[in-house]
Design a protein that fits this description.
The chain is α/β, with parallel strands linked by helices and 452 residues long. The chain contains 17 helices and 15 strands. Helices cover 42% and strands 15% of the residues. Bound molecules: nicotinamide-adenine-dinucleotide.
Length: 452
């Protein structure tokens, strides 16, 4: 083991290493808090002045219960600070963790500009031997073929200036059971010493097992596999849901029954589309890389077709049910409950609700929305203000769509809701939160994804 590695390993074990987290978003903030909670001195870097100022005031702006709980005290204790300047953050640090965005560009291809820009800036600030960890999601080869050459461009080398690791972030914010500290961490370095340094650092800040793999590319491929697995399986149940609606078979009941098989099956659930920051985006990182290698990822393309079809199918089914009740979408008042992309969060990024609103607007339906977490959403230049309550949202409405699995929608009194709506109202439960029986007993025409 080189002297540099031994010295950095000692600093990690004794918690004397200084940590710099670049990109203080949904990923960077919980990592900052976990590192500081473990006893490391942490400096966060973000290009957004407002975020830096909020962190320095001890204000947590990401929706993460763990960070909300611990960040204020850790800032007060002087273990966390933030800056806009990468040189200020990185130069004096021993470990730099990169958590900047990796979005898709308007063509739907990977946009690695944030990651490249950080690599270039870091190459100028590699004084002393540092462990550099990339956490941003990308395709295999990003760390070794794109990030590392940029890091080395000022004559720096892995032998004397840095260790380099890719460790995919798996956080599922809003998840009450799994947070940054108890999700197992995968670590792959450009050489054995890098892997060892990365693994020891995560062991020092997490309660979860650390899994080492043979290279950064394997760690990148792990992340791609996990999120493509979800994208494809969601497409599978979405497509089968539509089929079983037509066949007159309760597919949701079938999923629950299949889930009793103790091996070889993992339940996924259909819905009005696929939303969120990662699942609809990440598969297209690998699609891009595959294309470069002359390879077509047919399953991902087919899944995209199915997943994109879900909002259209949902609105078509609603329109048909309205016609059966001698009403029409252009003359109907339709209420959408839930704007966030998943239950119990306020994040509306790529939310299927947005697609539903677009389609309802195109159909000239009169739209109302309610979300206990989201005050408003802007879709196609139009602002939809959330009603003040479930009750307020449904007065004189013809149809109610449950679009997000917020817990409040599981228990709301459906008879009361029904009594405020027009004749022959429809309840379309796209998330299967309520039973057919309770909806029909309350007097609704019942529709649900995956159910006839
Ligand atoms: N959000 C999730 O749940 C999640 C989960 C797993 C992986 N990821 C991946 O992690 C990465 C970060 O995601 P996120 O959700 O935290 O993004 P985010 O947009 O919430 O945060 C990224 C932050 O980086 C900052 N930034 C951009 N360029 C910078 C630069 N040059 N210097 C300093 N700061 C810079 C931005 O201002 C922003 O605050 C992405 O690759 C994403 O795909 C996200």
């Amino acid at each position: 083991m080189s002297e540099n590695t031994t010295a950095l390993l000692d600093k990690i074990m004794s918690k004397k290493a200084k940590v710099c987290v670049v990109g203080l978003g949904y990923v960077g903030v919980p990592l900052t808090v976990a590192s500081a909670q473990a006893g490391f001195d942490v400096i966060g870097v973000d290009m957004e002045k407002e975020k830096v100022s909020m962190i320095n005031k001890g204000i947590c702006y990401v929706e993460d219960a763990y960070s909300e709980k611990y960040l204020p005290d850790l800032v007060r204790a002087g273990l966390i600070s933030a800056t806009n300047s990468l040189p200020d953050g990185a130069t004096s640090s021993d470990i730099v963790i990169v958590c900047v965005p990796t979005p898709l560009n308007p063509k739907g291809d990977p946009d690695l500009s944030f990651l490249k820009s950080v690599a270039k800036d870091l190459s100028k600030n590699l004084s002393g031997f540092k462990l550099v960890i990339v956490e941003s999601t990308s395709f295999p080869g990003t760390t070794t073929d794109i990030f590392q050459p940029l890091l080395q461009r000022k004559g720096k080398s892995p032998e004397k200036d840095f260790a380099l690791v890719y460790s995919p972030e798996r956080i599922d914010y809003g998840n009450a059971k799994f947070g940054v500290r108890n999700i197992p961490k995968v670590v792959g370095g450009i050489n054995d010493e890098s892997t060892q340094l990365g693994a020891e650092f995560y062991k020092a800040i997490l309660d979860a097992p650390v899994v080492t793999v043979g290279s950064p590319s394997v760690a990148e491929a792990t992340k791609m596999l996990e999120n493509i697995f979800r994208y494809v399986n969601i497409a599978l149940v979405n497509e089968l849901a539509i089929l079983h609606e037509t066949l007159g078979v309760d597919f949701i009941e079938a999923i629950s029954a299949a889930a009793t098989k103790p091996f070889g099956f993992m339940p996924h659930y259909p819905g009005p589309g696929v939303g969120g920051h990662c699942i609809p985006k990440d598969p297209f990182y690998l699609v891009f890389k595959a294309k470069q290698a002359g390879f077509l990822l047919r399953l991902v393309s087919a899944s995209k077709t199915v997943n994109k079809m879900m909002p259209v199918h949902t609105i078509d089914r609603l329109a048909k049910a309205l016609r059966t009740g001698k009403k029409s979408l252009p003359n109907a008042i339709v209420v959408v409950w839930g704007l966030a992309y998943k239950g119990e969060v306020k994040d509306t990024r790529r939310s299927p609700s947005i697609e539903l609103l677009k389609l309802l607007k195109q159909s000239r339906a009169k739209i109302r929305v309610f979300d206990p977490y989201v005050p408003r959403v802007i879709v196609g230049g139009k602002t939809y203000e959330s009603s003040s309550s479930e009750i307020e949202s449904v007065r004189d409405a013809d149809a109610l769509m449950i679009a997000t699995a917020h817990n409040a929608f599981r228990t709301v009194d459906l008879s009361k809701i029904r009594s405020l709506m027009r004749d022959r109202p429809i309840l379309y439960d796209t998330r299967n939160l309520r039973t057919r029986r309770e909806c029909e007993e309350a007097g609704f025409t019942y529709l649900a994804t995956g159910r006839p």
